[in-house]
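Q: How do we represent a protein-ligand complex in a form that can be generated token by token?
A: Start from the inputs.
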Amino acid sequence: MHHFDLKDGALHAEGVPLELIADEVGTPAYVYSTATLKRHYGLLRAAADAHRDALGEALIAFAVKANSNLSVLATLAKLGSGADTVSEGEIRRALAAGVPSDRIIFSGVGKTDVEMAFAISVGVRQINVESGAELDRLIAVAAMMDASPAIAVRVNPNVGAGGHAKITTGGKGDKFGVPVEEAMDLYARASASPHVTPVGLACHIGSQITDLEPLKAAFEVLADMTRKLRAQGHAVTRLDLGGGLGVPYSGGTEPPSPAEYVAMAARVLNGLDVEAAFEPGRLLAANAGVLLSQVIQVNERSDGRRFLVLDAAMNDLMRPALYDAFHDIQPVNPREGGATAYDVVGPVCETGDTFARDRELPPLEAEDLIVFTGAGAYGAVMSSEYNSRPLIPEVLVDGDQWAVIRPRPTYEEMLDREPFADWL
Ligand SMILES: Cc1ncc(COP(=O)(O)O)c(C=O)c1O
Ligand SMILES: N[C@@H](CCCC[NH3+])C(=O)O
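Then emit the structure tokens for the protein with pyridoxal-5'-phosphate bound:
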């Protein structure tokens, strides 16, 4: 919460009181801190630069899926960040935000021919191929375009990890990547084609990983494969180490620091003479954002349960409903008094619309403002208009200035998107 701090008894985003943003923009709203984005990118950049001998000129490619707002992407692009993308839409966002195409990696388990052709046409840095079937289609698409895009083979190292079963990606049964033996064959097959240029290997084993061991095991698989492929005469110049490093969500397991993580990667890659890429999403964005919300009312029931009913709901921040994720809740203008246990819920018509059960919180009343911390990654991007609740605005703060970087649609705009069938 470095850049979301109490000043004179009121929570600020950098130099801006959150109450001011709530007054002007309304609630709920996402609020992001430029200083935190810069700090997180800088920590990782410095760690990578300190290990240039082992990691080369490592690319940091922000995983756009974590927060795809154009101003957030532009903030990172200005720092030199690349982009890890999984759809044509994400590639277009990265380009629009000023990420040079040679810093864009195109990953994903199901790229359509149209998306692959688009990626080739704009000259992305590399396409991470995730299956034999995809390699065949990519070769066919590239042949039609008379191209030979750089590719990496995404390996499924059979090391799954992550904060929840639904966000583990590197286990044998997960849909991502190619098992090691098959990946070796795929690489040889790709090398034999004039229409793709294999440059390396990639992995990404899960998200919110708080232990270096599984990451190390996965990187060792890539290092070992690199040696074997080279022994077979193949060129391997890049290793894409994926994202996945966890962040501190208060109350949760403390993850290793970016410096420890990068040092571990450098130890594994040392002597291989490759250029590394990192694809952090959560690491850069999660703690750079809060979800600002207002208490609608407190329901004190005769059975003793106490519900804090907010104007934010599961459609705005899905992580608690989907992964039982913990997000700290803090009052924007804390009142004096002892803590009370609340069930914190939104107005959506589902019991799953529960942010927290029995959460001890300082005194709160109707119309008070609160924030959910750690909401800058996989927050706004995963939101929907369920229950016909319009998407909520996003605000970017930088020092004392702030801007609405995605406005709240009006109800008219929401309804106007749906033309009536002409027979109605
Ligand atoms: C290929 C790939 N790279 C990077 C990421 C970013 O992950 P994280 O936000 O955990 O760093 C993901 C999402 O998990 C991914 O699938
Ligand atoms: N959406 C997940 C992370 C998924 C990572 C993408 N592969 C979350 O909110 O934790």
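The radius of gyration is 23 Å. Residues 65, 167, 169, 207-208, 319, 323, 378 surround lysine (ligand 2) (CB under 6 Å).
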